Amino acid sequence: MKISVRGRIALRAAALASWASQRAGRGKGSMIGGLIALKIDPTIMDQLGRGRRTVLVTGTNGKSTTTRMTTAALATLGEVATQADGANMDAGIVAALSVHQGVELAAIEVDELHLPHVTDSLNPAAVVLLNLSRDQLDRVGEINMIERRLRAGLARHPDTVVVANCDDVLIASIAYDHPNVVWVAAGSGWAVDATSCPRSGEPILWEGAHWRSTGTDFQRPEPDWWLDDDKLCGPDGLRLPLTLSLPGRANRGNAAQAVAAAVALGADATQAVAAAGTVREIAGRYRTVQVGEHAARLLLAKNPAGWQEALSMIDPSSAGLVIAVNGQVPDGEDLSWLWDVRFEHFEGVQVVASGERATDLAVRLTYAGVEHTTVPDPVRAIASCPAGHVEVLANYTAFRDLNRDLEAKR
Q1: 238-241 and 288-291: which strand pairing?
Q2: How many other C-beta atoms can be found within 10 angstroms of the C-beta atom of residue 155?
Q3: How would you list the strands of the sheet with 320-324, edge to edge?
Q4: Three-state SS at 185
């Protein structure tokens, strides 16, 4: 990998800034290092991407999990560069690549808004498209606009393999005309944002797992990879047991796309499936923490589709369910999305509304007919539940702050 003189200066300055940030106790310093490197040399991402076989992973939900699974599957071929902390914008990507110079394989999580220009910079071997749904409208914007932007970005890279979820209408639209697609039936539990065709505006009709547009020939493509109960099925009659350490049907879909991407880069399918199954937690998600008499399992959700999927993972026999919601800038300050999430099916579970916006959540739970208490502090909310297993579901900053508080108590 050849780095220009200016690029080497940028990377040295970045390393110094990261070191200073760590010494000052202000975190790992990867973001400040990446920002400084880009400020000194705006072409540094292009340079760091040369000579690598890179997989980019994007979508509204599941990016971090799928990137971790893809990293594990690719590791059957050799060392893999990736983000340790899930920083998925330019600075975080530059930081990850800079500390793995000389590593030929990379699995990089990318924010969906950043995918077009990151693809231009890194010229990836493969792009994994997971799902696309409404997120923070104040930051991300209208969903069909994002679909059009991603479609145009991938059109500039016809040689890149696109590993696309054929069950997601918007994702299928992005990849439909691409000349090099691997279709994966990864599932789609949320169709609210794709009731009409993103290409024609005509209604989308669903017939079982199949969908089609009423106004064009746009329809669900036939998958190359799909899930059949506990098996992952692939090309040439491949059928492999898929055993995961992570819960939920969505994670089985994530694993299917991770394996498909790794196989596209030359990994053995059997080894890739086994490796993806070893992933146990992602930046604190899914882990169980002992909090006094409570074994609290921590789940993260950030938008309506993610909340609906996470709620489906809740163990109905749990002693309690703590739902923590903040409304800070990273969460999206508009919490009207709470009314798009179905909270109606928690009879028999003690539910506690928590977080900075516990009152907003409590109103939604009241209208859903869910009996609950309100305890704004998530740690105290956990303590208010009966002893035993407690499920904790939190949005972004509530999850971050809860992990920080739990670590401080250790």
Answers
A1: unpaired
A2: 13
A3: 288-291, 294-300, 388-394, 320-324, 351-354, 372-374
A4: strand
Whether 123 contacts 160, CB under 8 Å: yes
- DSSP secondary structure code for residue 336 in this structure: G
Q: In 123-163, which ranges are continuous DSSP H helix? A: 143-155
8 A C-beta contact, residue 208 and residue 281: no
Residue closest to 202 by CA, chosen among 219, 185, 183: 219
Q: Residue 96's closest CA among 109, 77, 115?
A: 109
- Confidence at residue 63, expressed as pLDDT on a 0 to 100 scale: 94
Are 324 and 395 in contact by the 8 Å Cβ rule? The answer is yes
Residue 10 to residues 37, 95, 130, 302: CA-CA distances in angstroms?
A: 4, 11, 33, 34
CA pair distance 151, 107, nearest whole angstrom: 21
pTM equals: 0.90
Read off the pLDDT of residues 32-79 as tens digits, 9 standing for 90 and up: 889 999 999 999 999 999 999 999 999 999 999 999 999 999 999 999
Tell me which amino acid residue 337 is: W
Structure tokens at 47: 């340079």
DSSP state of 221: P
Reading the block at residue 191, the tokens are 């169709």
pLDDT in tens, 10-29: 999 988 988 887 777 766 66
**Residue 1 DSSP code:** -
**Total residue count of the chain as it appears in this document:** 410
| 83 Cα distance to chain centroid | 13
The amino acid that residue 356 corresponds to is E
pLDDT tens per residue across span 107-135: 999 999 999 999 999 999 999 999 998 76
Cα angle, residue 120 at apex, residues 119 and 121 outer, rounded to 5°: 90
For range 218-245, the mean pLDDT: 96
From CA 168, how far away is CA 186, in angstroms rounded? Answer: 8
Encoded tokens for 309: 């999927």
